[in-house]
Write the structure tokens for this entry.
Amino acid sequence: MADPQTEPDEIALRAAEVAADVTEAEDQQDRQRLTAALAKAASSGARAAGRGTRAARNRIGAARRGAGSGAGWLAGQVTAMAPRLRVRDQAALRAQFPGQSAEDIADALIDGASRASAAAGGAAGVWAVLPTLPAFPAEVAAETLVLVGIEIKLIAELHEAYGTPAPGNLPERMSAYVAAWAHRRGVFMIPGGVVLATGSPLARLLRRRLAARAGRSAFSLAPLLTGAAAGAYFNSRETRRLGQAVRRDLRRRALPGS
């Protein structure tokens, strides 16, 4: 019998599904529906935290303060989620984008991921206008996991598009892509390997990245829909920047002289 402490959290499993579905969804309403469903699941069972704008601001502050202390838990969820992400290999990408170059496919992947990240931010922010406020910290965790899942999937598929997948079996490859997410570089640029051992420099970097990402997710919880719009914008911009940074590394490796 498996040790229950080693089994991935249900939220991580659901986040992996949503991250893949929302990235590949063609309709904006479908993207928002998927991310909103996860936010609702994450907050179900939590007590209402108050009413009105002042209560919302208090919850935003609590979420930001809790981002650092919860980064270790988030890191565990990310490592549990990563091997369960649905990643399209090079053959699948070429079949989906027939006749297109690696550059064209990369453009499509980055555009799709940035739209998915925008939908994730907007869906979480909409909760802030409800008369009875849900548990924001749970939503911040859910949104952060989906966003990171979207970006790790993007990194993995960019490597596939350029014909430079990470070596090893599935867990090893996905561990490498988690490390690439933390380093904001292609897998081959990561120094010192990709071991995510507790206390390692990479593990500490991963926790810092996740704490910062959760802090930005908390901003999307501002009231009166301003947070939803801001969250969508910042998430989309961050994902696009990450995709372009990884792409530059892969382009230099796959297309010498570019």
In short: Residues 4-254 form one domain. The chain has one domain: 4-254. Residues 226-254 form the longest helix (29 residues). Residues 1-7, 45-68, 126-136 have pLDDT under 50 and may be disordered.
